[in-house]
């Protein structure tokens, strides 16, 4: 027994040595050898608890070195058997518990982990009072929790650990895994209440172990988790305060400091007040200064600085914040995460910077950052956005191009990024805003189109494409081009049918299209499309506006009252829907005014005026709506014949003008309506009172030619009622002062009125000196304004059937008798005036014949509506003539300076030229030797025609010069042959009408014409969509009018006008009617015995003599321009060409020739010698050689 005891003691000592060795050994093989020796000893004494305990401890040590799961499991099994043998031994249970923990760390399957935890759970239940066994149980529960993904499982595990911690409340070691498992649990909880409950448990634990940094850390972490779920700022602030106290307790802990940094950042995301955000940023700034080397804390500080920047509106504040983040980025230069908020804050800075230089500097900083992190999509996105911002402040095309190119390269690097593609799309739109050349704009549009095709599902990129298409349409002058652009936007809108923004651009481009459409049917089709769009987006005032505007445009093209009424009703409904919209109300006001211009019945006009009155009362402060109301009141006054009615209307407009006293636009119709009132006032006192009102208005707007004109007119109306010479002289002084006022010295209309008035004054004057002075003044007026006066005289002889009774005729007759019209076509009337008395039948008859001639001449004029025929005007001539036109003066720059000639009518190659009209009218044949004072130049629409080459093209060796459209003027109405070319009209006495400003037709018809919408101005965060263009064009070349040659068939004793491409049926009928009426007038009054009278008729016909030819020349489709030049030695307009050996008379056109195309004849020698010169002088000239075969 003693020997056995000795052997046992030796074995225990040996096992103690083996245990000590295993505790120090790091080699697994060596540990396995030690465990094997321990096993042998244990098997010698299987009943010895002491031996078993030492063997168990050695097995645990072995498990520490084992990394293979199977090996570890085998070791655990051995220790498990050992524990089962000595079930009541807490000492053996402890290494078993510890080895189970080790086993769990190597297990990857949740099931295995659960099984191991269950074994340890049973062990702990057996030894419930053992804190040593409770600790590994706590640890294995924590390890288990890290693998559990189901909230319920995690909650169960946490509950077990909670019970354990409650049993061993004073154990910091058990409290720590409990704290950690509570944090793990919080990561899976999504309900705020659950999270708050878990945080409270951990808070109590931390309060129990206040000095434990290990427990403080998960508490800090769970507070961060809690903050991420809190939506109320107060709750978040409370949570942050708790973590702040914790950080103050453990000031040197970088881990807790990091969590405090995180919660401060979370807090900043909820703060909306700048001061609060600044306080939070200051706290994080101090924290970062304490842990300067921590990139994680620096990152949160960087992010909170970015958040702060989003609330800062003052540039200085924002710059200070940017500097802080810049320093941080310089400290952590290689950190992409810190570089990102720095990139974003630079973008924010650019949003506030207004100076181009500042913004450029900011862009450079971000550009360097992007170059450092070239592969970073997020930094590239910030760079893309700041480039777009830069483009917003760049006004120069070159700068904006360069910025767009940088963004283009960036987009090519990140081709699949919709985030970078979007600012690229927007910068292309911005670029389009400053591009004036159509080709450049088209290239930009193509780039954005490709981008949109790549990102077809991107609404934002599609919107940018829609916007640039609108810009493109405003630059397109050709209707076809604009139609194509509209179709592209139409497809886009169909793809994004629910997009209000794209629909808005489609609405605007449809409106822009309407400004180019001249055909009513086309405009109606466009209106229908916009109407459907508006019905789809019924609640959108933005889309309703272009619909309202296009309805205004439609109304201007509608000639039928019913059509215009229907259009007005649509806009009326729209206005009722958007009653508070001043923009839509304005368009409704405009269309009501347009409607008024077509209404001839007083009651209808009154109803329309009442509607506009109500609208004006609703928008009392709108000068634009007030203007429409003012204009419609003027129109209404023209239909009122009763003085009381007209007075009442004037009073309304007077109140309006008093409300908008500084508005020149409203003052103008008030001035006009005062003139209208004066026209029906018969009492001198009333008229004088009206004149005083207009006089005050003119004094307020002293330099306004628009208001000066009606003032001049009302003074003239006043003079018609004045019979006393002294009063007339007072009125004359006022008119003289008006005429001599600096801004009006060049006013043709005021000068004309003044001239008419002076002729009336002359008749009242008896003093010869006064008469002489008046005569001299009239002469001076004519000398300065002769062209304008002659245009008015043209109008007079066309429009007034009682010429001699008009006020204008008095001026005309005065100037005529003074011999001032010798070098005009009216020279023939001078001899009439000398021969016949002013009130004689002969003179009246001749003037009547002259009037018919003017009407026929106008009928032959080429009209504006003929533009739709796309006519070309060719002039066949010799090649030498072309060379002469292209000849350069030494001192001039390279350009075409040659002017075309109008040759005297006596040189016509047709022997019957000028005779056909005599046959029609039954006049004696004109003496062929009689010289003509008319000069002309011929054109044809038959360009490149065999017969024309043969007859006029130098036997096909010459050229056909096709002149540009703007080298001629066209008639839109007879007003174009007179001074009525201006746009406003005022009633002047009974028969005189003066034109000015932007309104149309006489007061007795309508004082103002229909208005059309010309543009939509829109400003947005990406730039500005430019105004669309107005309809119409201004002639840049010569002002000569083209007259069509009428081809006459006079066979069988009857005449008829042949229909050609240049005349429609209505024009031919009208022309034939006028000719028959003229013939009837001549036949009735022609006195065969009076040679002078017959000669006067012949001279009268001279003006249209060369506009009629025999039907034999119908193939020529000829047009001519005419010019009168009196054959007088003093006429410096006439020149002599002596090249042919005979001095031939000609006059030159006023401006150099405007060549559109040169067609070289089939036999023209070496046209390639001429084309370089053409290209040098005018790159826009087209040229080709005739393809006609010519022998």
UniProtKB/TrEMBL annotation:
Coiled-coil ranges from the UniProt annotation: 62-738
UniProtKB keywords: Coiled coil
Keyword Coiled coil listed: yes
Xref: Pfam families: DUF2971
Domain of life: Bacteria
Xref: SUPFAM superfamilies: ARM repeat
Region (Disordered): 1014-1033
The protein, known as: F0F1 ATP synthase subunit delta
Species of origin: Streptococcus mitis
């Amino acid at each position: 027994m003693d020997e056995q005891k000795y052997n046992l003691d030796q074995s225990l000592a040996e096992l103690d040595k083996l245990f000590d060795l295993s505790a120090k050994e790091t080699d697994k093989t060596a540990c396995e050898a030690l465990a094997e020796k321990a096993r042998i000893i244990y098997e010698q004494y299987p009943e010895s608890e002491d031996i078993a305990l030492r063997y168990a401890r050695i097995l645990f040590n072995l498990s520490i070195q084992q990394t293979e799961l199977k090996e570890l499991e085998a070791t655990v099994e051995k220790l498990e058997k050992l524990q089962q043998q000595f079930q009541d031994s807490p000492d053996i249970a402890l290494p078993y518990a510890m080895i189970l923990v080790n086993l769990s760390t190597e297990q990857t399957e949740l099931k295995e982990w659960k099984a191991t935890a269950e074994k340890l759970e049973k062990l702990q239940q057996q030894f419930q009072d053992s804190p040593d066994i409770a600790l590994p149980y706590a640890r294995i529960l924590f390890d288990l929790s890290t693998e559990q993904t189901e909230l319920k499982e995690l909650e169960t595990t946490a509950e077990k650990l909670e019970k354990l911690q409650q049993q061993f409340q004073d154990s910091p070691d058990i409290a720590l895994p409990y704290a950690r498992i509570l944090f793990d649990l919080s990561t899976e909880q999504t309900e705020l209440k659950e999270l708050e409950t878990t945080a409270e448990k951990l808070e109590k634990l931390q309060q129990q172990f206040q000095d434990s940094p290990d427990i403080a850390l998960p508490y800090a972490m769970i507070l961060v988790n809690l903050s991420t779920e809190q939506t109320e700022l107060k709750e978040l602030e409370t949570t942050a305060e708790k973590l702040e106290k914790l950080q103050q307790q453990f000031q040197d802990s970088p881990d807790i400091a990091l969590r405090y940094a995180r919660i401060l950042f979370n807090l900043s995301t909820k703060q909306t007040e700048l001061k609060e955000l600044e306080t939070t940023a200051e706290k994080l700034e101090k924290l970062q200064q304490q842990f300067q080397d921590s990139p994680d804390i620096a990152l949160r500080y960087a992010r909170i600085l970015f958040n702060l920047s989003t609330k800062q509106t003052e540039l200085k504040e924002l710059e200070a914040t940017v500097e802080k983040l810049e320093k941080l980025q310089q400290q952590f230069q290689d950190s992409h995460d810190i570089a990102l908020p720095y990139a974003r804050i630079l973008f924010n800075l650019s949003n506030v910077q207004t100076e181009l230089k500042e913004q450029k500097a900011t862009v450079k900083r971000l550009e360097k950052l992007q170059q450092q992190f070239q592969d970073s999509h997020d930094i590239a996105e910030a760079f893309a956005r700041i480039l777009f911002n830069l483009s917003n402040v760049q006004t120069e095309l070159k700068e904006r191009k360069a910025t767009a190119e940088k963004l283009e390269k960036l987009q090519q690097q990140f081709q699949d990024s919709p985030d970078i593609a979007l600012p690229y799309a927007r910068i292309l739109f911005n670029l389009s805003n400053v591009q004036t050349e159509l080709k450049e704009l088209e290239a930009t549009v193509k780039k954005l189109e490709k981008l949109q095709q790549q990102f077809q599902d991107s609404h934002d990129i599609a919107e940018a494409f829609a916007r640039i298409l609108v810009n493109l349409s405003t630059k397109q002058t050709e209707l076809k081009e604009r139609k194509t652009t509209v179709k592209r936007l139409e497809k886009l809108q169909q793809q994004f049918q629910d997009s209000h923004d794209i629909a808005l651009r489609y609405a605007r481009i449809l409106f822009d299209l309407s400004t180019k459409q001249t055909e009513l049917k086309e405009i109606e089709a466009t209106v229908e499309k916009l109407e459907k769009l508006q019905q789809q987006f019924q609640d959108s005032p933005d889309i309703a506006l272009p619909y309202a505007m296009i309805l205004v445009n439609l109304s201007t093209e509608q000639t039928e009252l019913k059509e215009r009424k229907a259009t007005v009703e649509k806009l009326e409904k729209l206005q009722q829907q958007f009653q508070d919209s001043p923009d839509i109300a304005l368009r409704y006001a405009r269309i009501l005014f347009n409607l008024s211009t077509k209404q001839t019945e007083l009651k209808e006009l009154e109803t329309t005026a009442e509607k506009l009155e109500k609208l004006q009362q609703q928008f009392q402060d709108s000068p634009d709506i007030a203007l429409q109301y003012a204009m419609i009141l003027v129109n209404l006054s023209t239909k009122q014949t009763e003085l009381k009615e007209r007075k009442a209307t004037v009073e309304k407009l007077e109140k309006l003008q008093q409300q908008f006293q500084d508005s020149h636009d409203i003052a103008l119709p008030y001035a006009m309506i005062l003139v209208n009132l004066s026209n029906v006032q018969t009492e001198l006192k009333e008229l004088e009172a009206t004149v005083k009102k207009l006089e005050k208005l003119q004094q307020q707007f002293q330099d306004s030619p628009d208001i000066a004109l009606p003032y001049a007119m009302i003074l003239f109306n006043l003079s018609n009622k004045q019979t006393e010479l002294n009063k007339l002289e007072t009125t004359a002084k006022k008119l003289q002062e008006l005429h001599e006022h600096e801004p009006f010295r060049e006013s043709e209309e005021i000068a004309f009125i003044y001239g008419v008035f002076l002729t009336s004054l002359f008749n009242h004057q008896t003093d010869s000196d006064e008469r002489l002075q008046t005569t001299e003044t009239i002469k001076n007026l004519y000398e300065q304004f002769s062209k304008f006066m002659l245009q008015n005289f043209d109008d007079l002889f066309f429009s007034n059937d009682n010429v001699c009774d008009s006020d204008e005729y008095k001026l005309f007759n005065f100037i005529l008798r003074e011999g001032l019209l010798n070098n005009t076509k009216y020279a023939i009337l001078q001899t009439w005036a000398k021969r016949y008395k002013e009130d004689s039948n002969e003179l009246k008859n001749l003037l009547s014949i002259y009037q018919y001639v003017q009407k026929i001449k106008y009928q032959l004029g080429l009209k504006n509506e003929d533009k739709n025929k796309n006519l070309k005007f060719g002039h066949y001539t010799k090649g030498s003539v072309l060379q002469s036109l292209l000849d350069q003066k030494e001192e001039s720059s390279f350009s075409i300076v040659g002017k075309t000639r109008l040759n005297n009518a006596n040189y016509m190659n047709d022997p019957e030229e000028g005779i056909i009209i005599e046959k029609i009218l039954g006049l004696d044949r004109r003496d062929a030797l009689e010289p003509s004072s008319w000069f002309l130049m011929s054109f044809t629409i038959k360009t490149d025609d065999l017969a024309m080459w043969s007859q006029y093209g130098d036997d096909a060796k010459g050229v056909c010069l096709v002149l540009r459209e703007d080298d001629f003027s066209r008639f839109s109405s007879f007003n174009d042959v007179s001074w009525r070319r201006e746009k406003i009209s005022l009633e002047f006495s009974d028969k005189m009408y003066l034109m000015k400003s932007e309104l149309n037709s006489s007061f007795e018809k309508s004082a103002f014409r229909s208005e059309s919408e010309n543009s939509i101005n829109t400003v947005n965060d990406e730039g500005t969509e430019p105004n669309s263009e107005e309809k119409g064009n201004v002639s840049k070349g010569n002002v000569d009018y083209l007259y069509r040659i009428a081809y006459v068939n006079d066979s069988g004793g009857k005449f008829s006008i042949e229909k050609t491409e240049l005349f429609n049926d209505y024009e031919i009928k009208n022309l034939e009617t006028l000719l028959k009426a003229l013939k009837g007038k001549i036949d009735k009054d022609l006195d065969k015995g009076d040679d002078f009278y017959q000669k006067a008729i012949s001279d009268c016909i001279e003006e249209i003599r060369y506009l009629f030819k025999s039907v034999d020349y119908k193939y020529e489709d000829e047009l001519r321009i005419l010019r009168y030049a009196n054959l007088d030695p003093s006429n410096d307009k006439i020149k002599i060409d002596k090249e042919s050996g005979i001095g031939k008379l000609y006059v030159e056109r006023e401006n150099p020739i405007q060549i559109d195309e040169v067609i070289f004849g089939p036999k023209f020698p070496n046209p390639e010698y001429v084309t370089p010169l053409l290209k040098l002088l005018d790159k826009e000239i087209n040229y080709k050689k005739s393809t006609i075969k010519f022998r």
